[in-house]
Design a protein that fits this description.
Layout (H helix, E strand, L loop, with lengths): L2 E11 L4 E10 L2 E5 L8 E4 L4 E4 L1 E6 L12 H10 L2 E6 L10 H14 L3 E4 L15 H6 L15 H14 L2 E4 L4 H4 L4 E2 L2 H6 L3 E2 L2 H17 L2 E4 L8 H9 L4 E6 H5 L21 H13 L4 E3 L7 H4 L16 H10 L5 H15 L15 E11 L18 E11 L2 E5 L4
Parallel strand pairs: 1-4, 1-5, 6-7, 7-8, 9-12, 10-11, 12-13, 13-14
Antiparallel strand pairs: 1-2, 2-3, 5-15, 15-16, 16-17
């Protein structure tokens, strides 16, 4: 019987929306009490006034197994996640080959169980090969452990195919995750349209591409009644449509990647390819609008959109370089920029990082409540550091935060009451 008793902690409770000093008791991997006495024989952990919060649940992590293990493995991703306070990775199916059969899903589950030190929940493709022509065996994949279905940034253009897939997913109670970007307008673009794109001579995509695709998906949600999550809402123009859909009672939630909350299109500067993302970075006005949307709860979830790319695919001209950035290890310190800028307090930040992802996937974690799994992160929100990408634990180190000044250091991470990361203090 393992008992832990955390004392001198600053408890960040996303359910009660409180940030108060206190203690937390854990027994056999489960939270048993807040502010109770230390049980006899319990291991006492003095938090020294640091913040103790539910571990992060990161929706939309790419682990490059099978097919591109040199970019990221479950072992390296798990180590990076633990170092970043992420206790659950919800993995994408956009691997090579895609996760579109029960056999492929079983491979992922076995590898994750054997190699990752944090929890892994796999998603499966919505259509075979992510080609948008024929839906996958959603029922079999769900029985095999798929927690959601998505084709990622391969948007299904055939509305009839998509409507049938959504109808079938609705009949099974399955969650579908969409990527609201009109593929016609987005084709060939690598930045958002605007003065900067023009000055740099780069092909751009209008923010309306997000709004148009979201409008279509909302119509299909209304028609089919499916549970739907938009993986990234990054523009001000898409927010009114999202707000109306929620007000009308549709089963829709939305997320946003941390890079779109903390960076803008000017950061591309002199064609820096670590800042090439999908969708592309937006204007500062858009960034401010989506921060407000997270603060009010209109956008439900913050994720890393962890997308490892090797050096060869990034060291190319901007238009030719691969899109994406790693983010497991930088998600929390980057998100703390919003706290230090007085835009979002810590309990609401952890609603977006932990509690709301748990709600989305019907998980018992994401909270400090009695009976919840002891998936915890202990961190100092004020500890400053300059990020050196060579210290990241991911196999790929394509981070836009290399050399950036950040605040917020993870001190320890626990999964089911077992410590999976401990910072070595200098």
């Amino acid at each position: 019987m393992t008992q832990l008793h955390f004392i001198n902690a600053r408890l960040i409770d996303p359910v009660a929306l409180t940030d108060l000093p206190g203690s937390l008791t854990v027994q056999d991997g489960v939270v048993t009490a807040q502010d109770g006495p230390a049980p006899k024989g319990a291991k006492v952990i003095d938090c020294g006034g640091a913040c103790l919060a539910p571990g992060l649940i990161d929706v939309g992590v790419k682990v490059s197994e099978p097919g591109e293990r040199h970019k990221e493995s479950f072992r390296s991703a798990g180590a990076a996640a633990a170092a970043g306070g992420v206790t659950t990775m919800v993995t994408r199916p956009d691997t090579s080959p895609p996760i579109d059969t029960p056999e492929a899903l079983e491979f992922v589950r076995r590898r994750a169980s054997a190699e990752s030190i944090v929890r892994v929940l796999p998603m499966a493709a919505l259509t075979k090969g992510r080609l948008g022509h024929e839906m996958t065996e959603i029922g079999f994949l769900r029985d095999a452990g798929a927690v959601a279905f998505t084709d990622g940034d391969h948007v299904v253009t055939d509305t009839k195919v998509l409507s049938r897939a959504l109808t079938y997913a609705r009949s099974l109670g399955a969650l579908v995750i969409g990527h609201p970007q009109d593929p016609g307008l987005s084709a060939g673009a690598c930045v958002t349209t605007g003065k900067f794109a023009t000055l740099r001579g780069l092909p751009g995509v209008s923010p309306m591409a997000e709004r148009m695709a979201l409008d279509r998906d909302i119509a299909l949600i209304e028609m089919t009644g499916v549970r739907y999550h938009a993986d990234q809402i990054t523009t001000a123009r898409a927010l009114p449509a999202l707000e109306r859909a929620k007000r009308n009672g549709l089963a829709i939630t939305a997320g946003i990647g941390i890079h779109h909350l903390t960076l803008n299109d000017m950061d591309v500067a002199d064609y820096r390819t670590f800042f090439k993302l999908t969708p592309p970075l937006r204007s500062e006005d858009d960034r401010q609008a989506v921060i407000d949307a997270v603060a009010t709860g209109l956008i439900d979830i913050i994720c890393s959109m962890h997308t490892p790319q090797d050096e060869e695919s990034k060291r190319l001209p901007f238009e030719d370089a691969a899109s994406g950035a790693v983010g497991l290890q930088t998600l929390l310190p980057a998100a703390l920029r919003l706290y230090h800028d007085d835009r979002i307090d810590l309990p609401r930040l952890f609603r977006a990082l932990s509690l709301n992802p748990a709600h989305l996937l019907d998980l018992p974690s994401g909270r400090l409540s009695e009976g919840a799994p002891a998936d915890l992160v202990l961190f100092d929100p004020d500890a400053p550091f300059v990020l050196d990408r060579s210290t990241l634990l991911s196999k790929s180190r394509n981070t836009p935060f290399d050399g950036a000044r950040l605040q917020g250091r993870v001190i320890g991470t626990w999964v089911g009451g077992t410590r999976v990361f401990e910072r070595q203090m200098a």
